[in-house]
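Amino acids appear as letters; backbone shape is given numerically. Here is one record.
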Amino acid sequence: MEITLQTLLIVCPLVFLAGLVDSVAGGGGLISLPAYLLAGLPPHLATATNKCSSTFGTILTTVRFLRHGHVHAVSAGLSVVFSLVGSWLGARLNMVLPEVYLYWFLLGSLPVIAVVIILKRDLGAENRMDSLSTRALLVRCAAIALVIGAYDGFFGPGTGTFLVLALTGLCGFDLLTASGNAKVMNLTSNIAAFVTFAFSGNILWALGIPAALFGIAGQYVGSGLALKNGAKVIRPMFLLVLVLLLGTVVYDVAVG
């Protein structure tokens, strides 16, 4: 496929925006993947090239959260393992269970989650991990990783957002630490998918590399905003991602 200036002008600014949103609250793929489709890429090339542009930006954000100490390393390492297992189970489940059931579940749950974020203004405002024993914390993190990893393998959009919400609500993480742990888990799955697509020859490097540079820039700006302003920036981004995800689900149900 020929990559034109028009293609770059459509994709790169939207990938920058996707990187900014993703670094703060997850869900960047809800912006970047449609950008590739809007530019005329067929779905298999859009999905593969999107992984190229998102993986490198996620690496940057993950490193920044690690350097600032906003990752709970033990639970993050355990969560990666259970997330991979869950993703495999979700992919297997996708082969036998129609996605429409998940669509209807999301249509009912997403507005409720949005209302909770709006009303519960202290969600993730401070770290409450000390209220749990180490064993209880790790068990909860493993369960979250397994369940949301299965969602990622089955469907995918908004995985990072759901991880952050679950880690703050069930494990007592503050928003920054929850975001850091979610980035570690997302990075693992991104690298696995990126390597797979790279070896399959489905990545359009002439588009993926410049888009990756814009994604890195977006992730850098967004992670800086998150690290500096914390919940003041993260909460509104959560609501934006939930609205985007709800719109995606409604559209898929309507046209499907």
